Structures are given as C-alpha cells and as structure tokens.
Amino acid sequence: MSDTLPRPALRIGDERRDVNAAVVLRTVLDHGPVARSRVAALTGLSASAVSRQVVDLVRLGLLCERPELTGGGAGSVGRPQQPVDIDTDRLAVAGLHIGVPYTTFALLDLRGNVLYRQELSNRGRTGHAVLKPLLERLPRLLASVPGGRRVLAIGAVTGGTVDPEHGVTVRHDPLGWRDMPLGELLSRAGGLPVQVDNHARALTQAELLFGHPAARRSMVQLFVGHVVDAALAVAGVVHRGPAAATGDVAHLPVPGSDALCHCGRLGCLAAAASDTTLFEAAAAAGVTEKPDRAELTAAVRAGDPRADRLVRRRSEVIGRALALLADVVNPDLVVLTETFSLLDPAYLDVVRAEFARHSHLRRDASLVIAQRRGPDALAVAAGAAVLGELYARPLQATAAAARTPPTGRGLLR
Hints:
By secondary structure, the chain is an alpha/beta fold.
C-alpha cells in the first residue's frame, strides 16, 4: 500500500478535467454558496463546462446544491442560478499532528472545520514508542467520525525535515526520529491513503486554503513550539526545496542567548525561542513547579509578573527573527503560530514592536498576524495536508481514496 496519496494514471483529457474541476472547487470554496453562472464569470470557463464539473463534484461528495437559498423550491429557478457550496456533510479527512508532549488527532470537514478532536499524551516517549499506542488506537479514532461521513484520507504532520513524496520523517531531533516511515505505518494501521508533511508547511497550506487573502500572494509562516520551523509560499504554492526541506531557521544565531541547542552550539533560535527552553526557565525561576505549558499558561493568566517577563523576552526574540525572515523574503504576510501570542494580543504587540524595530525594510508591522484557529491550528494544518491535495486534484484524490480498501471501521459508509 502506498504511504502517500497515490497519483492514478489518467486517460487523455482527464488531466484537463481535473484542472477544471479544481478551478471550480476552489472558486466555490472562496465564494460559496455561489451560482454556477457566477462561477463561470469568476473562472472564465464556459457555462456548460462549469455545469459538467459541478455534476461530477456533487456526485463525488465535494459539492452540494443549495436550492433553498434561491427563495423557492428546487424547481423555482434554472440551474445556472441555483447556488452550490462545499459539501460539509458527506466526507471528512483525518489529521494527526505528532508533537513532543502530545499527538493531536482530529476529523475535519472539507472547509477545515473541526468535527472531532482528541489529544493523546506522548508521556516523554521517543522513537517508535511514540507511535505504538497511536497505531493501535487509530482504527477506533477514525471510527469516531460524526454523521456517517466517509473519511477520505489521513494527513500527518510533524516538525523537522519531512519528505512528503515518500511519507518519511527524515529527521526530528526531539522525538529521536531518523527516516521514520510515518506514512507507511499510518496507512497500514488506518487502511487509508496518508499525506505526510512538515507542520510549518501544513500550517501554510491551511492559511492558503482558509486564511488571510494576502497569503495567496506571498507569505512566511513561523512555528514556535518545542521545535522551531518556518515555511514559505509564493503565488499560492508552498515552497518545498531539495531534499524535502523548505529551509532551516532553527539555527539562526540569537545574540545574547546562552541556551544550548541540540546541535551543540549556543544561542540557536531553536533553543532560545523553544517551548522547552521557556518552560524550563519558568520552572527554574519558581514560576511553575515543573516545565509545563499548562502551568505557565495559568501563571500568565493569573498576572504573575515573572511569567509575563519570560514570555515577553521570548516574544522579543521571535520579533527579531521575523524581521530577519521578512527582510530576506519581503512577503505580503507573516503568520506566527505560537501559544502566547494567541493567548494574549499584548504578546503579539511585543512581537510586532520588535519586528518594526529590527526590520531594515521598515515594513508596517501589521503584516505580522497570529494564526486564527487557536488550539485547533495544528489539527487543521494536519487536515490541510490532505485538503490541499484534494482542492488541487479533486478527481485524482477521490479516486485514490475510493480504491484504498478499508481496515476495520476506518471507512464509514
């Protein structure tokens, strides 16, 4: 069984059909509910071509007709004026974000809305031990999809260097992974196609699909957690460089930092800004009893000035790193995924102030935004690894899912 979403061989003319289907589907995602005639005007496709695509996409469960929005019954207006929308009732995708402290499992509809979400503690495990309980529980988790939806595929994202083509996590230092065949293992356990990617790239894909319109021109995404990753998209395409790496910001030097990085050097961004360093500093200062996200979050919410200073200090480091990235790339949008800038906008203001102070381009700091999915951000990103493929090649992606035999209750019909 393939460890990533397979690309079936298409007959002559099917590639063009898939391209047109993708154009129609993406237009409905952006503008739906929307009439077929409006889709034709927005895309430049003929009315007949749009109608053919809509028929196929409705049959596949990707679109649905919305005659009730015309103000009358199903026969009150001609089909060109009858609205269609993304079907959020018949299909779903699964998303797995495998992090250091826990793994997030979620089921999403085709608009990226979270239908079901569960966190599984990794209990300090590394190597294959991280995956063993997840693989055992995966069929039951997939069976939790509400409303009788059919699960098309699994998106699995994690930090470090990830090769989406082969479904392999090439390197994830905190988890102790080298050449982990993540896609193959998950596909065998869940009986579904799997799309694997780096979580920063997946967060970028989610922003392109469901986020700020400026993202489709150009954007930089910075993820700050137990690992620090960045990704870049230009003209609506997420960049993936040679050897499956987008680029590595983890080892950018942070002046004045003496945090020890796993690479053996002092003051790398991965160490200076990471959750690991922040939580350990909080415990060492007596702010928390142990290095723990929940305890530090509670201290910040309670107004502990020591917790506030620690988080502000990290926000300044992040702001300087973003200024450097923005000066190099000059994007239309910079998106930050980080716990405390979501918890309190005051910390995002610190990031923006430091960004404005250090950017040589002197860009308006309002181009720096926090991702807007809150605690669901990584779950949505994991699903976006599949949804990006679905919206780019809807006919191929649904055909691949249909040919994958179910394991247990992984596919609900």
